[in-house]
Design goal:
This protein is mostly helical and about 160 residues long. Helix content is about 70%, strand content about 0%. Bound molecules: zinc ion (2 copies).
Amino acid sequence: MWIIDLIIVLATFLAMEGVAWLTHKYVMHGILWNLHEDHHRKNPSSFFEKNDYFFLIFALPGIACLAAGLYVPVPHLFFVGLGITIYGFAYFLVHDIFIHQRFRLLRNSDNFYFRAIRRAHKMHHKHLNKEDGECFGMLWVPMKYFAEQLRQKRADA
Ligand SMILES: [Zn+2]
Ligand SMILES: [Zn+2]
């Protein structure tokens, strides 16, 4: 049933936000801080960061599920891999392109949702150190940021 596969893709995508939050808070700001550190202390002269290794690390489970799902008869596994991989692309679009402007694309958004998640991530970057972080999520952030941008939008209107 394709509808079940669609639900699996969506559920995996949503679950990945939780996985990303946990990983960011407890792994990237934990045991693998040495790879994440340069993302918080930007060196403007270099395009790549050690933090980019996380793309490889995060891509692996998605690719593994996609490949295994194609060749091993585990029901729905392929669609779990699809959900993980789509989340990876969304994270890249939002975090690396929209928020950090690594490519000059998607600069201006008037949408309160995108403004809120950008603002929350900028708050995350206010902290330069491993400890005392906030806003570890990417596509879902504390409600106050959404409320703030909605108020702003109403005030502008
Ligand atoms: Zn961080
Ligand atoms: Zn960032």
